[in-house]
Amino acid sequence: MDFQLTPEEEAFREEVRAFLDENLPPEDQRGPEFLAEWNRKVREKRWVGFSWPAEVGGGGGSLMKQVILKEEMAKRKAPPLGTCFMGLAWVGPAIIEYGTEEQKKRFIPDILDGAYQWCTGYSEPDAGSDLAALKCRAVREGDHYVVNGQKIWTSIAMWSKWMILLVRTGTDPSDKHKGITCLLVPMDTPGITVRPIRNMSGGSMFAEVFFDNVRVPVENRLGEEGEGWRVTVSALAHERSGISEIEGLRRRLDALRELARRTVRRGRPAAEDPEVRRRIASIDTRIEAMRLNGMRFLTRQLKGEPLGSETSINKLHRAALEIEIGELALEMQGARGAVAGGAAAVDGGGWQRFSLSWPEVVIGGGTPNIQKNIIAERILGLPKDA
Ligand SMILES: Cc1cc2nc3c(=O)[nH]c(=O)nc-3n(C[C@H](O)[C@H](O)[C@H](O)COP(=O)(O)OP(=O)(O)OC[C@H]3O[C@@H](n4cnc5c(N)ncnc54)[C@H](O)[C@@H]3O)c2cc1C
After folding, report:
1. How many whole angstroms separate alpha carbon 338 and alpha carbon 350?
2. Which residue among 57, 82, 107 closes a domain?
3. pLDDT tens track for 307-362
4. C-alpha–C-alpha distance, residues 110 and 119, integer Å
5. What is the pLDDT of residues 208-267, one digit of tens each?
6. Rounded-to-integer distance, Cα 42 and Cα 79, Å
7. How many domains would you assign to the chain?
8. CATH, residue 369
9. Ligand 1 neighbours (beta carbon < 6 A)
10. Are residue 140 and residue 13 in the same domain, yes or no?
């Protein structure tokens, strides 16, 4: 690992710092007007889609500069670069890799501008971890596909204008990975019903989505018919990469340390309790291990080697760390750990909400068991799960 920055990269770091000095007020002064202005300015600088090719409207930036940009942004708790979360995270990269020129022109500028949201229609009631078992069917009729079936756990389906959807087009049951096709579907197409699901923290951010004879033009197919699995695998690799989450975990650990200093357990600050100290030290060490793993993956990418299953390692670490940080915070609070609202709630119930939100990080994009299977089979070369 040699991360000696070139003079140009050092200059870029200074440019980012100067931009942040000039344009980023303290967190309590960041209202909607600031956010609108922020989004406009970072788009103007081509920092949204920083590593995407310049010809589609991205920044054409190098991997190393992207790391510098993300690091500096995270250190200053800057708002995200761009507002179309799924569009930027995996829909856009999939369109850039597999889309037609017409699809790139139609969708990429809107994703960069944050013109609307995308949602992801992959999981079904009987196809989650085993995604290739999906049954939602599309039958071609002339220049349209007619879609029938159901998706579930579709995040932000209620507020999305478009969905990246996986459907079964093939009929050969002997290879379930073949015969899956990816479609880009407007959510206001007749025959689509979105039913929000309430989660355990009381919010509704995902939904069931039903398709009843939904007609999707063939020109909205992403990649070839039957190529949907490949499109998805590359899209999910983007989701699992995880380098940028390390700063977020570090900030969460800082808040945990601060909580330990001001929380009294058995007459003294929790920060003096050897068991609390041991657990905080263990979390700290594992975040550092995650950072070093991230650097290792980065080195491989800088050498032009593709990133594959390795990204599952940090996804697994992150899932475990998020749960442990939340559990320790609530344990330190004692009986008050059970109170999420009102005057008795510690920090306004923020730790309770954090602790109830773990499924998003832990389950979304592949559960820990699935990550372990991937690591065992593809990295350690152990026999395949039956
Ligand atoms: C907050 C949140 C947001 C989500 N957003 C989206 C979204 O926007 N779009 C979308 O398509 N999906 C979304 N999902 C769904 C998510 O991708 C699935 O929940 C996930 O893939 C697991 O599938 P499942 O729920 O069907 O569980 P299952 O696959 O039924 O798994 C149940 C349990 O069995 C274990 N298991 C399954 N197979 C194996 C195996 N081979 N070896 C060992 N253990 C195994 C799992 O680890 C798990 O513990 C979201 C989920 C959550 C929690």
Report:
1. 12
2. 82
3. 778 888 998 999 999 999 999 999 999 999 999 888 889 999 999 999 988 888 89
4. 14
5. 999 999 999 999 999 999 999 999 887 666 554 455 688 889 989 999 999 999 999 889
6. 10
7. 3
8. 1.20.140.10
9. 119-123, 128-129, 153-155, 206, 359-360, 363-364, 366-367, 369-370, 373, 385
10. no
- Quote the tokens at residue 209: 């989505």
Contacts of 200 (CB under 8 A, 6+ apart): 356, 359
Residue 148 tokens read as 């029938």
Quickly list H helices, 126-201. Answer: none
Residue nearest to atom 16 of ligand 1 (CA): 364
Whether 127 and 197 map to the same domain: the answer is yes
Render pLDDT for 78-98 as a digit per residue (tens, 0 to 9). 999 999 999 998 999 999 999
Is 46 inside any structural domain? Answer: yes
User: Given the CA of residue 121, which atom of ligand 1 is nearest to it?
Assistant: 11
Give the relative orientation of helices 311-332 and 245-262 as an angle to the nearest 10 degrees: 20
CA pair distance 307, 300, nearest whole angstrom = 7
DSSP 127: B
Instruction: Give 85-90 contacts, CB < 8 A, sequence gap 24+.
Output: 85/117, 85/156, 86/117, 86/118, 86/119, 86/120, 86/155, 86/156, 86/164, 87/111, 87/117, 87/118, 88/48, 88/49, 88/112, 89/238, 89/239, 90/120, 90/164, 90/235, 90/236, 90/238, 90/239
**186 lies in some domain:** yes
Task: List the beta bridge partners of residue 164.
Answer: 120, 184
Q: Residue 354 corresponds to which tokens in the numbers above?
A: 């954090």
Would 99 be classed as within a structural domain?
A: no
- Residue 206 to residue 364: CA distance in whole angstroms: 11
Domain that holds residue 338: 241-379
Ligand 1 pocket mutation, candidates 166, 183, 236, 367, criterion most atoms within 8 A of CB: 367
Q: Using CA atoms of 132, 136, 138, 144 in order, give the dihedral in degrees to the nearest 10.
A: -120
Task: Tell me the C-alpha distance between 319 and 330, whole Å.
Answer: 17
Q: Which of 226, 230, 210 is nearest to 125 (CA)?
A: 210
Tokens of 7: 């003079």
In 3D, which of 6, 13, 7 has the Cα closest to residue 73? 13
